[in-house]
Amino acid sequence: MIFYFSGTGNSRWVANALGIALGEAVVSIADELKTGKKEFLCPLREDEKVLFVYPVHSWGPAVPVARFVSSLTLTGYNGQPVYSVSTCGDECGYTGDRMRKALAKRGIKLTNAFSVIMPNNYILMPGFDVDSKAVEEQKLKEAPAAVAAIADAIREKKKVNLYNKGSWPGLKSYCIYSLFANFAIGKNSFRVTDNCISCGLCERICPTGTIMLNESKLPVWADTCVQCVACIHRCPVHAIEYGTISIKKGRYHHPDIK
Fold first, then answer.
1. How many Å apart are CA 61 and CA 58, to the nearest integer?
2. What CA–CA distance (Å, rounded) separates 253 from 24?
3. Residues 195, 131: Cα–Cα separation, whole Å
4. How many helices, marked H, and strands, marked E, lie in the chain?
5. What is the reported pLDDT for 59?
């Protein structure tokens, strides 16, 4: 079973690729959270593997993933292998360790943590932007081999290091991420420009139901945003901005995820 969360499609692409390689079903965490259940029960076969595939947000797990794990019960769990696969633009810090601790609270032992470098997409702070087209294309070119190496390590039960921790992981994952999760989530400065064509795509793809169209068929954002950046990157006419920070910055979503 592969549980995934994705905003711009990077993690969804990785989850789909791993699902094919390992023969495991792929389940959307966003869809599960939208059911409003207080507890998520997942029956587990004796020979089944469990993977969590998700983006790194500010050097920690995307907040919806942490919420899902905190209410997850794997019925039939008896030590089956469990893996964390995080997608990141450059480095992951101690994201894997944070997942390990979150799973341990549910009585689940993490077997190993992996990461896959994918194109950058966080543009909601000064100094952050998408990659150049050349860098983006190179990362996408190298991603299949990285996923194949992870699938091989899982199949063969290899103890290998396929995780990019980066520098100052403690500071980033236990200080900066904690601030992000506590203060950045919920508040947002998203707005729509006159370019909006009222297609409603942002409302349909928002994984937390944060966006609704008003009487004028224009999107409005509630205070449940988790900064997955799906809306701003996938708007077909670039009509969404984040205050003034995102003006003139690039947009990105995985080319294979429609």
1. 8
2. 24
3. 24
4. 9, 11
5. 95
